[in-house]
From TrEMBL:
Pfam families: DUF58 (PF01882). This is DUF58 domain-containing protein. It comes from Natrinema longum. Residues 186-315 form the DUF58 domain. Keywords: Membrane, Transmembrane, Transmembrane helix. Residues 322-347 have a biased composition (Basic and acidic residues). The chain crosses the membrane at residues 7-25, 31-48. Residues 322-357 are annotated as: Disordered. InterPro entries: DUF58.
Length: 357
């Protein structure tokens, strides 16, 4: 608890009045000093009785770079009190609206503001400071709430429609080849088996033998696409963006996608929740390398080195910039027709990618 600037002015006035009272008598002291002292003491008593406000933070939804998210807090007090509420916006985020408010706290009050997602990663908002004042503004007391809320920012997901058709088709073929159940073995035909599962090529080769039908592999990972990503430099944001783009494209094509990173892995899956899990992993992915066997077993390898990022499919290396059509755009677009920075394209702002997040 401390005096505000206004409070110190009151103290100076009181001291000055006391000094003048020695020359002009105690009547001047009563007329000026007593009311000010009463107000100052009342402020000290009022603010001294204020209990620490109770703060409850609501979760902040994750999002993509360039999007905005609402930060919401509930502040509970035992008695009405004038206050200045100030929240801290961490690195990687920017305040879209003012995180400072002067208000009167009474009961449960909701404090909200918006932040803009600036960088990939897990960022934080908070801690919160609440400065309460007496009615006249002579005395203030500051409370700090150290609780913070995490804000997860996904990597950029690029649009692949502008890349060369051969490159895009090669990536699409990965999803197509795993779109159906994988072949396991042949067995003898039994009554009730669907005719479409009869292996007619075997029947044609051995017309005197019994018919056989195709059995397919079971299990969640049958027909799954495995994407692995590694970064040999400090450009892990570029690696995360490339891996997120590839995984999103494969999921949109109906594939079941698993992800392997140097610091973690996610088993194959599909759907909105699984897509969010993959993006969440890539939001916090750092540099690192994977073993040779892991790369060999993968369907798609995303690799970032000092000279750029490549996507490897069936031993064919495709520069990621070429896959997303960046080279073509730089050759064909006039400078006046391009929309500023290349980092603000595709899924950077606004809508989420095709697999709804």
């Amino acid at each position: 608890m401390r005096l505000t600037r206004r409070g110190w002015i009151v103290v100076a006035v009181v001291l000055g009045a006391v000094a003048l009272s020695w020359q002009f008598g105690p009547r001047a002291l009563n007329a000026v000093v007593v009311p000010l002292v009463v107000v100052l003491l009342a402020g000290l008593l009022t603010i001294g009785r204020v209990n620490r406000p109770r703060v409850t933070r609501q979760p902040v939804p994750e999002g993509f770079i360039g999007e905005q998210r609402r930060v919401e807090l509930t502040i509970e007090t035992d008695r009405p009190v004038a206050a200045t509420v100030r929240d801290t916006v961490g690195d990687g985020l920017a305040a879209a609206t003012d995180p400072v408010a002067k208000t009167t706290l009474e009961g449960d009050e909701t404090f909200t503001y918006d932040v803009r997602l600036e960088e990939r990663g897990e960022h934080r908002v908070g801690p919160l400071s609440i400065t309460v004042e007496d009615v006249v503004g002579l005395v203030e007391r500051r409370f700090e709430d150290e609780v913070t809320t995490s804000v997860l920012v996904y990597p950029r997901v690029r649009e692949l429609g502008r890349g060369p058709a051969a490159d895009v088709q090669l990536l699409a073929s990965v999803a197509d080849r795993h779109a159906h159940d994988e072949f396991d073995h042949l067995r003898e035909y039994r009554r009730g088996d669907p005719l479409r599962e009869i292996h007619w090529k075997s029947a044609a080769k051995r017309p005197d033998d019994d018919l056989v039908v195709t059995e397919y592999a079971d299990g969640e990972e049958a027909g799954a696409v495995t994407v692995v990503a590694e970064c040999l430099t400090d450009r892990d944001g570029e690696m995360a963006s490339a891996a997120a783009t590839v995984a999103t494209d494969l999921l949109e094509r109906g594939a079941t996608v698993g992800l392997v990173l140097p610091d973690g892995r996610r088993p194959p899956g599909s759907g909105r929740a699984h897509h969010r899990e993959l993006l969440g992993m890539l939001a916090v992915a750092g540099p690192g390398t994977l073993g040779e066997q892991t790369r060999r077993n993968a369907d798609v390898v995303v690799r970032t080195e000092t000279d750029g990022t490549t996507v490897v499919i069936d031993d064919q290396e495709i520069p990621f910039d070429r896959l997303r059509g960046r080279d073509r755009a730089e050759r064909t677009d006039k400078p006046s027709e391009r929309s500023g920075s290349d980092d603000r394209t595709d899924y950077d702002t606004g809508d989420s990618p095709g697999v709804t997040v």
